[in-house]
Amino acid sequence: MNSLKVLELYSGIGGMHFALKESKIPGEIIVAADINTVANSVYRYNFPSCHLIGKNIQSLTANFIDKLEIDVILMSPPCQPFTRVGKKRDINDKRSDSLLSLIKILPQLKSLKMILLENVTGFEVSEARNLLIEELKNSFTFLEFILNPSQFGIPNSRERYYLLAKCCSSGFVEQPDKTLITDAKFLINYETKQQIIKDILEFSDDSDEYSKYLVPLDVLKKRIKVMDIVTKTSNRSCCFTKAYSRFTEGTGSVYCPHDESAIEQISEIKNICETEVNLKLLEGLRLRFFTPKEVSRLMCFPENFEFPKEITLRQKYKLLGNSINVFVVSKLISFMTKTA
């Protein structure tokens, strides 16, 4: 296979770039583009030689993209228009404008052969998705997936929608009867990691670093009932969102250094009154937030991924919460580019 020329849109902190590298497919990111200045600083730190454009995707024209002679577009458009928190305003949400602009110019791109789009579940029933398929259907064949990293043995839940599109002249090596695929084993290159939480921990439980990430006692008193708690031997964790560490319900799991029996005790503690004894029990649990490095490992970013020193802890969680699972996307890239 000749080296593919790739355009990375909504590039964020470089998840798609890392996925391309992980896939081992010969290819190069010709241009990356994102409007988020903080994300761009992280991207440049990790890919200093890549041509990164700091501008709204809506400003990109068909003529500009055509001159790049790209083969592939990798993109993860803003998900808020398709979420409950974003009120599911779909194409009526201003944050969809750049995607709608892009949809209109995709059929005009002369060299484009493949597209991979990632978004939240719910995108598959959106008007934005329907408009995209309508524009692509005459020139591209496509498959849609809803996959979760947990299906690949990764101890994290991050169910996402993926669209793969290939120009009709090539098509997919494997073509199922239905277009929405939820079985990860359909992928020709399917493999699993079989990890547990212990495999991604950054430091030991008796480390000096541990206390820096402890959940504050006042937060425990108020929110322990809604916290999702995992231990070393857990083979799961909740999806980490951009609000992790600021809010405790539905934003990601917290870590307990004790064994599973401690989790059973937690259930009892959740239902008893606040007394000095119970507060001591809460403190003794030593519940802590996962570190950004641990979250990035759960999202399968490589060990050489780093944040610049000026990026704050809150910014790190927010950027990771907006990113992708690198391993899952790498398998989809491999599948999409496979030829007979």
Provide structural commentary:
The chain is α/β, with parallel strands linked by helices and 340 residues long. The protein contains eleven helices and eleven strands. It has helices at 15-23, 37-46, 62-68, 97-105, 127-136, 217-223, 260-270, 276-285, 292-298, 313-321, 326-337; strands at 4-9, 27-33, 52-53, 72-75, 114-120, 140-147, 160-167, 180-181, 229-230, 254-255, 288-289. The strands form two sheets. The protein has an eight-stranded mixed sheet, with helices on one face. Strands 9-10-11 form a three-stranded mixed sheet, with no helix packed on it. Strand 1 (4-9), helix 1 and strand 2 (27-33) form a beta-alpha-beta unit. Helix 1 (15-23) crosses helix 11 and helix 4 runs parallel beside helix 5 (127-136). It is elongated and about 70 Å long.
